[in-house]
């Protein structure tokens, strides 16, 4: 049964696959490089969001060598807007290791891939299957949903172990690249979480969930966290007080206004930076990385001589040339 399912999925994929930029390549080296970059970009990010960023990134860095030779700052700037910037740093670090240790050849061995920065079990298996056509299967959310429905697996004890066994039973001796991409594609386009298109599915006759009428659709809502942050806006002679050190994790790679999670952090910074005339400006809301950020903006002046450790005043024109977060741009718009 499993092999029959695999063949049908591969046949369907070859006919209906989306025209994604990382699926078009000049040669095997180009394919492997594009798969590597796309897998990093697709971590925690949807396909449609990734496409324009991938195209722009590939235009700048055509191969693993050009990627490894550029600076970390340039990589982050090229990644700007895609979020989860640690992925960019990991991809850059991985490209350097591949060039230094493997002479620019992406490893086709699981044990060598898994130790590279930012490469976990799923990413390693996805690269091996898609880029090298090896007998591996990375299980993402789409494949997890699809396989659990095909074999009518309930979220019970040992669910993940059963899922892994059933998913790996679909692996065949050839066309594993098409198989893994087909499974993901079928999950994304047909076997959707809330509105599956079962009548268009090439394996509906083999799907136990469909055959037994057991499809139980539960709407799942991502829990959005609300977090409060306190921002110091200190301006002197058309210069703003900036730092790379702040308490908002997703922004650690960016220069930014001093940002604090708790009010006592502001009090400590007031002592350190000798802030005067601390005044509340306004509250603004910015969504970032699955959280709603409530920003409480405060203006302040300082008598301290700059620069001091981790802080500096930077001219507004210079700031516009630096690697800025959309977060910071929003604050700048609000304080004009």
What does this structure look like?
By secondary structure, this protein is an alpha+beta fold. It folds into two domains: 2-211, Endonuclease III, domain 1; 225-334, Nucleoside Triphosphate Pyrophosphohydrolase, CATH 3.90.79. The protein is 46% helix and 15% strand. Helix 1 packs across helix 11, helix 2 packs antiparallel against helix 8 and helix 8 (121-132) packs across helix 11 (176-189). The longest helix has 16 residues, at 86-101. The radius of gyration is 24 Å and the shape is elongated. The N and C termini lie far apart (65 Å). The mean pLDDT is 87.
Q: Can you give keywords for this protein?
A:
336 residues, alpha+beta, Endonuclease III, domain 1, Nucleoside Triphosphate Pyrophosphohydrolase, 4-stranded mixed beta sheet, 3-stranded antiparallel beta sheet, 46% helix
